[in-house]
Amino acid sequence: MACSMKQAGSVRESAPKRAKQLYELRRPVFLIGFMGAGKSTVARRLARSCGVSSLDLDTYIERECGKKIREVFADEGEAAFRRMEAHALGEVAAMDAAMLVSCGGGIVTTDESRQALQKLGFTVLLKVDADEAASRISDKSTRPLFQDLESARQLCEDRAPLYEQAAAATIDTRGKDVYRITRELRSLLEEEGVLCRI
Ligand code: S3P
């Protein structure tokens, strides 16, 4: 791989902070879904309010290989990025403290990562459609695979069965704001016994 990843360091995106009630995660939680589903924002918000850690997998990859995601795509191509993504997922899942991990929208496109999502943690699909996603994404230049609405609609449709296959649970985010999605995720994780009060 041209852009080799360093060994995992201390890369917590959001360390526990000022939560009123402290919780712990019993296993890693992976948020998946199409670009614009709100995965990173929701992971960060929920982590802060519960006093657990969150990590954005794209940010982790960027830090580990010293390049922006769009540069990785441009220089090395999508297949190389998918290998980095699978490798990063394995590293993050193996970390001592379980975290809320927001994953890139295309992580479900490889068998290896789909299997890892099923085995290594509790995976939640934040469902969105391409039209609503487009209205949520302010800067498309950071997303090489979200350029025009027509192809995004097709990609979203093509990936739908892969998301369903990888996820243990789904939250439909359509028409909902980030506060509501975060509340729904929190309830779901508590009901599933993945997020517990300490
Ligand atoms: C991708 C989604 C992006 C990022 C990369 C590829 C995809 O992450 O991983 O641009 O294939 O859907 P977000 O879903 O966080 O935008």
Shape: globular
The CATH topology corresponds to Rossmann fold
Number of strands: 7
State the end-to-end distance: 42 Å
What is the level 1 CATH name?
Answer: Alpha Beta
The helix content is 40-55%
* Strand arrangement in the largest pleated sheet: 3-4-2-5-6
Roughly what is the average pLDDT, rounded to an integer?
A: 92
Uncertain runs: 6-10
Task: Give me the secondary-structure topology.
Layout: E1 23-25, E2 29-32, H1 39-50, E3 54-56, H2 57-65, H3 69-76, H4 78-93, E4 100-102, H5 111-120, E5 122-127, H6 130-136, H7 149-166, E6 169-172, H8 178-191, E7 195-197
Parallel strand pairs: 2-4, 2-5, 3-4, 5-6
Antiparallel strand pairs: 1-7
The structure holds shikimate-3-phosphate.
Shikimate-3-phosphate binds at residues 35, 39-40, 58, 69, 104-106, 143-145.
Characterization of the model:
- The protein is built from 8 helices and 7 strands.
- By secondary structure, the chain is of the alpha/beta class.
- It has a single domain (23-197), classed as Rossmann fold (3-Layer(aba) Sandwich), CATH 3.40.50.300.
- The strands form 2 sheets. It has a 5-stranded parallel β-sheet with strand order 3-4-2-5-6, sandwiched between helices.
- The longest helix is centred in the C-terminal third of the chain and has 18 residues, at 149-166.
- The radius of gyration is 16 Å and the shape is globular.
- Residues 6-10 have low confidence and may be disordered.
- The structure holds shikimate-3-phosphate.
- Shikimate-3-phosphate (S3P) binds next to helix 1.
